[in-house]
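WARN no homologs supplied; continuing
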Amino acid sequence: MDGQMTGEERVNDLRRPVRPARRVKSENGGWQAEKSQLMRLHILDATMHCLVDIGYTQTTTEKIAKQAGVSRGAMTHHFKSRADVFAAAAAHITDIRVLEYDAAIKDVTLSAGSFPTQASMLQTLKVLQDYFMLPSFLAFHELMRGARTDPELHGVMAPLEQSLDERISASMVTRFPVWAEVELRETGEVLRDLIMHALQGVALNPSPYLRGDRLDRLHELLAKTAMNEFREAYNILGSKVET
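OK structure emitted
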């Protein structure tokens, strides 16, 4: 219909990177400071692209510089080591993930404070699937993989992962406040774990057959499972759940 995006258009719109709103000018508004900060962001974007295209292990400062189209000297001026650029990229990508989540979840039509229906749950799953298919998720995951064997990177990634999870969980609870109710807290928690890990698994292992109708059926099963769990929990409490 006029004024509404198709599903494909919405996915393409989500795939446009959402840039964090950053203050690029120094306190005195100097152009040199602004230019330096913009170059840092350009290098961090190039780092994210390398992580997606070639993975953590193969991403070196030389390849990042080549991707960014800058000299080795310019690269070293902004980041003294591979560890430095990865630490900065991790924070940069986390900011992007939060902004992309906020942008994606706005598409869910459920009014704040109302109980989820199976239709709204399914819509949420589809929005979240699109969110996990974005390049920033793959880049973040590559950094998490690297952190398994790199103690220094682990020290950077562990608090960022926790912060990202908390911020997304808080936003989801705002959309579905029933998940935070004391009586349903365990149900909501295990369902979030089930849904998030299932959708992330699809994004990390994009099998050619798991798309279209087959992916739709997976989403429908997850939505049905979620609503059945809520319905059972509410029946125990003597309440009704809208379907």
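The chain has two domains: 24-80, 87-243.
OK
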